[in-house]
UniProtKB/TrEMBL annotation:
It comes from the Eukaryota. It comes from Eumeta variegata (Bagworm moth). The lineage of its organism: Eukaryota, Metazoa, Ecdysozoa, Arthropoda, Hexapoda. This is Uncharacterized protein.
Amino acid sequence: MAFKIASIPVLFPIDICVFSLQDSKYATTLHMKSNGARHFEVFKTNNGVYELIADIASPNGIAMDCTDFNNKGYVAIALNYTERMQSANEGSPIYEISGRHVRAIQYFAAAHLTSMYLRNADAEKFILLIACTDQDIKIYNFNDWKFEESKVQFTDGALGQGGQTCVSIRKMKSYLIIATIIWPIVRPTYILPILNKNSMLTL
């Protein structure tokens, strides 16, 4: 079996994510320029070569994730600020990608973000956004035009109590698996069966 290898022309990558829309492949990167400045860039394949279609400064970017949904791409970038942003468009952005167009659809003003994850759920087709700070974990549902904080009540109430941070998030079939650290010594893993966008349980 032959494998086709393509390269993404960026320096000092911090995070890279790849997805497909129709017959095109996209690569999104959070990386450092030669001068140390952090940038978010979007590439689209053209005759098998990744071409740059967007370059956006992300000076406090520390983590990135992406997914595709309804033939559009979505990218979440965690910006690590020590204080909550006063202006909405200074927060951590969610970008929507369609064709060669890239636009910010929402910003999150939370401080001390360590990571943001986008996960598709198949009980019902929707996107979950998991935003992790150094003290808390919040889950948001996508309602076709913006993310809203989930109203789900977890059975043990641990998520959102503070003093914890997520270290890994995986989507397996209809389960969302969140590995966390609760300081100083306890290290639980939450397994959340995704029933629909308003119904999840903690096992």
